[in-house]
Amino acid sequence: MQNFSRIKFPFILTAVLLVVIGCAGRQKFKKIDVPEAAMRSYLADKPVKLRPGFRAMLEEGKRNYVLNNMRVGIDALQIGHLEIAKKCFDNALNHIEAVFADNEKAKKARSLWYEEGMKDFKGEPYERVMAYYYRGLLYLADKDYENARACFKAGIIQDAFAEENQNRCDFALLLFLEGYSSLKLGDHQLATAAFNELKKLRPDFTVPSRDSNLLIIIETGTSPRKLADGVGHGELKFFRGRNIIEKRVTLYIDNKEFTAYPIEDVAWQAMTRGGRPVDKIIKGQVQFRKTHEKIGTTLTDISSNLLLASPVTSHSDTLSGVSAALGILGVAEMALAARTRTHADTRYWDNLPDSVHLVCLKIAPGSYQLRTKYLNGSSVKISEDIETIKIPALDANSTILLWKRPGINYISGD
Amino acid sequence: MFSANLNKIEYFSKVSLSKLGAALFSLAIFSFGCATVPEHSGTAAHYVDPGQQSEVSGVGLESQDIINMTDKMMHDILATPIFSKPKTPPKVIIDSEYFKNESSTRINKNMITDRLRTGLNQAARGKMIFVGREYMNMVLKELQLKQLGVINEGESASEPKAYGGDFRLGGRISTLDSVNPKTGSFARYHQILFEMIDLNTGEIVWSGSYNFKKVGQEDIIYR
């Protein structure tokens, strides 16, 4: 009976361990349990359409604070709640700008036992750049061209982090906006410097004239996606968003046609970033996992063979004991391997556009009919927006910003 | 020899097997449970010294920079004879109208110029007269009412008239950024220039600058 239990022990242990480690697949992140009364009070003054985002902000806490602020920021912009949008992007940027060194969560995210997604989200460079882009646009709408330019310049710096082999930015959208802000400030030298950089990336782009007073920015398509691929899902891959049909945009202002210039491909920016240093850490974790899995399998195989051989030898008790010990070690190795969390962080800013197009004009004050046609790659119309825009009288150094997505628009100075 | 070894193994297996199994089993139970990570409960709001670097810090302009730079400029201006030993107190405009931000740091420039003006106003003790140009509309409305005779002219002015400035603050915030994508380190050099301009001649009668460089390196997980 004693012999039987000793022989069976490793297998019982194996079964128990496998059941226990079975749940170590993906790490779960606990939501903050906010009492419903407190939640209701927090959401009471928030616009109804933004409440799900604000709820998530509270429940998901610091880990997704930046991400939720980014998401709510765009949602707020889309429904014209600019003060909320500004606050959200300020919140996101304040965290992006803080240097996260000696951060406890970052330390854990580097370890074998936690997923990369453990860290507080700050986004990949293209996401950080876009946060600066939106905050900059909001400053531009307020005619605070200095802070708008500061945002665009800071976004350009973030993009440099994505360029592994070149310490320069290739985010044409931000270079344009930096130049445009300088143009509106009358800093022509700085504007020229930014536009010269832009021309290196977009040689066919026509630099706006000093007296242009209407900037139309049109965003199309869905956000780039992140997926975990490879062994242990440790490899982060970027993909273009799904169901993107709009490729080009044509505008008609009182029937006069303007082709919007496709200044930025956000998905391309996401997909072409250089290798992340953290990928090497995850690769090491995957290797650790594979090695321990291999050792565990080998040990349990030997254990099984010894167990099978034990009845035919004169040292059957001894061999059973050795088999049991090796079995336990093998299972422990396998458990160690299974406990290693190698899944890459696939959280992403999911209401970003795929592409950004723009038109720059000089236009007299007045009321105009604006028709926006969204076309596919073969120039076939997908959808159309028709609206009336009012251009107020402006001083020479001011501009009106019209920000558009299909079916949505915001115009500054209304 | 082989038999002796087997005996040792047998001894080991009999004596230690149950202990080893129990230890491993306990370890497994404690360490292999489903890992969920709770959110931190936060920190209660509390006062901190704005002159000290805070826990959350970046490479941009922060409260301690604003305090240090305005203190330095204030002392420098007060040590300049044209302001410290004037024959008649000069009328000075200190606001952000001509204080430009060409940097990559978002900033409310009023934070700098407001602190500089209030500091100087308190320390100058009548040696300078500060003109609130940003309140011009307020002043004009009052003057209009006085000129219309709707209200009396108050006690101080025989002929109500807004002050013109003798000197006005100008300046520029500029930055130089550098990034090393391989190491994740980045640096920002700030150069903040303050100048006092004679509004009658355009002469720059005083200049001061405050420069600093901050470097940081993100945890590798964020690079």
TrEMBL record, chain A:
InterPro entries: TPR-like_helical_dom_sf, TPR_rpt. This is Tetratricopeptide repeat protein. It comes from Candidatus Desulfaltia bathyphila.
TrEMBL record, chain B:
Keywords: Signal. InterPro entries: LpoB. Residues 1-35 form the signal peptide. This is Penicillin-binding protein activator LpoB. It comes from Candidatus Desulfaltia bathyphila. The lineage of its organism: Bacteria, Pseudomonadati, Thermodesulfobacteriota, Desulfobacteria, Desulfobacterales.
